[in-house]
Amino acid sequence: KKKIAVMTSGGDSPGMNAVVRSVVRMAIYMGCDAFCVYEGYQGLVTGDIRKTEWNDVRGYLSEGGTLIGTARCMEFYERPGRRLAAKNMILNGIDALAICGGDGSLTGADKFRSEWPSLVDELVSMGELKEEQVAPYRHLNIVGLVGSIDNDLSGTDNTIGAASALSRICEMVDYIEATASSHQRAFVIEVMGRHCGYLALMAGVATGADFIFIPEKPRGDNWQQDMTKIVKKHRDLGKRKTIVIIAEGAKDINGNKISSQMVVDLLKDPNGLKLDTRATILGHVQRGGPAVAEDRILATLQGVEAVKTLLEATPESETCFIAITENKIVRKPLMAAVEATQQVAKAIEAQDFTKAMALRDTEFAE
Ligand code: ADP
């Protein structure tokens, strides 16, 4: 029987459990044995790999976070750590792995797959494993699933967890609005997103925010005057509250950070708007809580496709990740998307927004 393992890695996101459930059950449905690797790459290095049955993932569909654990694993960055990971996989008879994580985890996955044959050779030459033991496992098949609340991966329209985080943010803004309206206050709400303003922008649209700050579209030198003018206009129209949404990576056009405190000070300015203003940094509530329907569905459909991809893979086939493009679940080349994502982050740091946007919108061949 073929053995397929699933793992969650990097920052947790709602929907990761739904991925685990989907991969485990699809693998069993296809006549394979299913395994879970616990605590991300740490579990590969330490050998925390457990056979998982259909009923073991009951209740996983809606649960937030990841029940099989995730970790940042230093050993996996080094070759000896990856060699140990290969040994543990072979000892468990596993040569197919679905990994749900962010661009870091997917980079590690690609490196692991490309090194696999030489890692196996080393294990034999070092006397760790015998030739007969490794013979059936000369190739590793890997597939990526993108678990990230930021929706920051190039080549896919959405990532698993982003819809839940966005929903959570909107819910929190709704709660804050009650107080804002009652007291005619202003609130500056900081959301996650160092290089990607998706959550801030969409939350702003969904809550009718007065002003939004995102890394991709830095405000000009006159942002203070611009914001003051708009907030004043809205107040003059009779609006009793002011909501400003700021992504944690917000900057001005000169590359200087715009912090929530700077925005608060501006709204409070005794010579300006004079608004009673508070800041709320949403932090980890954005990651928490159950997965919304959209993430459960995305995770389930992508998990099914991931197992199909693993079963159809040949030693020659390119490593894929599962994307969603124009509402279709599709396979795309993993490293092209990961590299583009990392270049987007660099371009945003370097204030080259035209390049960043072009890279983010790249449609990789399916
Ligand atoms: P994310 O997957 O959310 O981007 P990280 O970047 O922290 O999170 O990556 C998660 C784990 O993946 C790391 O702790 C490490 O074990 C592994 N990893 C990340 N990048 C690499 C790499 N370049 N080479 C090998 N392993 C990596």
TrEMBL record:
Domain Phosphofructokinase residues, every copy: 3-309
Residue range from the parent sequence: 5 to 370 of 782
Organism (species): Neoarthrinium moseri
Entry binding sites for Mg(2+): D103
Any GO molecular function: AMP binding
Keyword ATP-binding included in the entry's annotation: yes
Residues noted as binding substrate in the record, renumbered to the chain: S148, I149, D150, R185, M192, G193, R194, E248, R278, H284, V285, Q286, R287
GO cellular component terms, semicolon-separated: 6-phosphofructokinase complex; mitochondrion
Major site of localization recorded for this protein: cytoplasm
Family membership noted in the UniProt record: Belongs to the phosphofructokinase type A (PFKA) family. ATP-dependent PFK group I subfamily. Eukaryotic two domain clade "E" sub-subfamily.
Protein name per UniProt: ATP-dependent 6-phosphofructokinase
Localization terms from the record: Cytoplasm
Residues the record marks as active site: D150 (proton acceptor)
Protein keywords: Allosteric enzyme, ATP-binding, Cytoplasm, Glycolysis, Kinase, Magnesium, Metal-binding, Nucleotide-binding, Transferase
Its biological purpose: Catalyzes the phosphorylation of D-fructose 6-phosphate to fructose 1,6-bisphosphate by ATP, the first committing step of glycolysis.
